[in-house]
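User: Hey, quick favor. My workstation is busy. Could you predict this chain's structure for me?
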Amino acid sequence: MLNRVGVRFSPRASAFAKATADKSARCTTVRLRGDRIVMNNTILIIDDDPVVHHILSACLSQLGFVAEIAASGEAGLLSLKKLLESGNEPEAIFLDVMLGDMHGSEAYLLIRQIEAAAAIPVIVLSANAEKETKELYPTLNASHYLQKPFVAA
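Assistant: No problem, here it is.
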């Protein structure tokens, strides 16, 4: 699917973007896992800034999502693994570029090495407006790039 500026997104990332654009939507994904139905509305936020946690959690909760917060890259990877093991695959991951314990690109590559997480959309967050940062994540196939600071509308 193409967005307004002609960038191609996967169907899953496009569905997430459409759902977040409609603030009245309540988002729950229903999947079949073996012979059982799994309903999911979790978003993983990997960012070391409590203000970002608060803003994103508030916005996502209005849309019907539950935010799982991780304050470091390592904590984010552990949270992701626990969510996957419990059958609660996140709908998307918000990933900060400048984490205290590792660079966001390293965390991104470690996320993509987890086979069960390969198709989860990753939205990269960065306060770094440098051209190199903006150009890095499309080469890694990140789903979206969001420049900080941002304001909840």
